[in-house]
Specification:
With about 350 residues, the chain is an alpha/beta fold. It is about 35% helix and about 15% strand.
Length: about 350
């Protein structure tokens, strides 16, 4: 005699379902709290690329819109960061913007410049003087005052910048990052290599753009958005834990010899100080200079003084050149205070 088995299912327990939903939400919240901005990367026949799915983050809400409005046709933007100390009237930001206006073929580049404000005062000033501003909020940290070199807050500010630039790359935008204490006198794009993934300025350039012994300066770099650069910026940011007392530039000097360069096929190139100079190693021929950086200089007042001298020298050079119609080399009087 066959035994009939009655199939049945237990009715769902409402309390159990609520508890399970709460646990899933809690675990998800904890995960994303530890990863403020997360991009799921997956491969598919649709070739979705690195910007597959963006998880909203209050600190970067609205960023993509700002980048889109400022971007060139090839999705490249120019980015600088700004805090209240450098945003005050007649401070660094005014000299920075002025250099674009008196440079050769640089004024039009301003429409592609995004100023990333690190505090409310800087954001307010930015909106009064420029079209593309983004407020990068950071919970529990006040970036408004001048940060002394290598202090704890200075290091936090530098690493905040690296992580932000990684986000820009993940969104599919290439960028030229420039410190605001860099004066722009000529369009730099003709001097960028077509096959370089990351092209970075130097405190001291040794003559070969591929030589890893060049001493890079993170204040000016051109980075193309691709899987290699996204991986490198993640690696760079994580390396801060391995070198806790070093800032981003010193950590880059450490990791530029690591296997990630070979493993990813990343092309790291160093920019010649003939075109991208600074107070460490000035570009002596004003007929060739694209940018001039107040590097190797600590202190806002010193930077302001010497950058004003740089702008005066450039204006005088242009006036003499226009008058004589000659290719005068010209020379900088700076650095003066920054010695």
């Amino acid at each position: 005699m066959a035994v009939l088995r009655k199939s049945f299912s237990y009715p769902p327990n409402p309390k159990l379902l609520v508890f399970m939903a709460f646990m899933v939400f809690s675990l998800s919240f904890c995960y994303f709290a530890g990863n403020p901005v997360h991009v799921f990367q997956f491969s598919s026949t649709w070739n979705l690329g690195i910007h597959s799915l963006w998880i909203a983050n209050p600190e970067t809400a609205g960023l993509e819109g700002v980048l889109e409005r400022a971007a060139m046709l090839n999705k490249t933007v120019i980015i600088t960061t700004l805090n209240a100390a450098w945003a005050a009237p007649n401070s660094i930001i005014d000299l920075f913007l002025r250099s674009f206006k008196i440079g050769e073929n640089t004024n039009d580049l301003l429409k592609h410049l995004v100023i990333v404000a690190l505090d409310q005062k800087a954001f307010k000033r930015c909106k009064s003087i420029h079209s593309h501003c983004f407020f990068l909020a950071t919970k529990g940290i006040d970036f408004s005052r001048e940060k002394s070199f290598m202090t704890e807050d200075y290091l936090k500010m530098m690493w905040r910048r690296i992580n932000f630039l990684r986000i820009v790359l993940e969104l599919g935008y290439s960028f030229v990052f420039t410190d605001a204490d860099i004066m722009w006198f000529r369009d730099p794009f003709p001097h960028f290599s077509e096959n370089g993934d990351i092209q970075i300025a130097c405190d001291f350039f040794l003559g070969n753009s591929s030589d890893l012994n060049n001493l890079p300066n993170g204040g000016f770099n051109y980075v193309r958005s691709n899987d290699k650069t996204v991986r490198f910026y993640k690696y760079w940011y994580m390396a801060r834990k391995q070198y806790p007392d070093k800032h981003d530039q010193d950590v880059l000097n450490e990791i530029k010899h690591d296997d990630i360069i070979i493993d990813t096929g990343l092309k790291l190139r160093f920019l010649d100080t003939v075109y991208f100079g600074g107070f460490c190693q000035p570009s002596r021929d004003l007929n060739k200079v694209c940018t001039m950086h107040a590097n190797c200089c600590v202190g806002l007042s010193k930077k302001l003084h010497d950058l004003k001298v740089v702008l005066e020298d450039w204006s005088n050079f242009k006036a003499l050149k226009a008058k004589d119609n000659l290719d005068k080399e010209g020379s900088w009087r700076a650095p003066q205070k920054c010695r």
